[in-house]
Amino acid sequence: MSRRYLTLQEAQETLRRGKSVEIFLGGFEFNSEKCIRWASFNGSESEVIGSLWESYDQGSVNYIDVYTFDSPSGEYDEPVKVVHSSGLESAAKELGVCELNFVNQGVIQDEYLSYIESNT
To answer: Are 14 and 112 in contact (CB under 8 A)?
Structure first.
């Protein structure tokens, strides 16, 4: 059985290699519409950039590409919040992330599928 979540140390190492990590944050409602939220993190040796993303919940078990969903803000390719921090934990905290369930970039879609399956 494989493990989905990265430890904090693994997530930090992923950033040092120039890759991104993400965290699925679940659902919320905006103007009576179902929406979802996730965070992504990119970094270097000296800085971590955290982005908070929101989109309408437009998926299904057959369509989980959260990156293509429309955004309530109107700009699907723009995060709703961006922070610059000295570390991954502090960037997550600045974005309001409580649980550090980091996954590699792209695995967020599997997280979304689990969310869909648990809410149907």
So the answer is: no
Answer whether 0.90 is exceeded by the pTM: yes
> At 20, which helix (H) or strand (E)?
none
Question: Which of 119, 98, 33 shows the shortest CA–CA distance to 69?
Answer: 33
Q: Quick check: 116 and 74 in contact, CB under 8 A?
A: no
Q: Give the separation between CA 120 and CA 106, rounded to whole angstroms.
A: 23
Q: How far is CA 102 from the centre of its chain?
A: 8
pLDDT in tens, 62-72: 999 999 999 99
CA distances from 6 to 58, 81, 102 (A): 27, 23, 5
Burial class (CB in 10 A: 0-12, 13-18, 19+), 119: exposed
What is the C-alpha separation between 53 and 33, in angstroms, rounded?
16
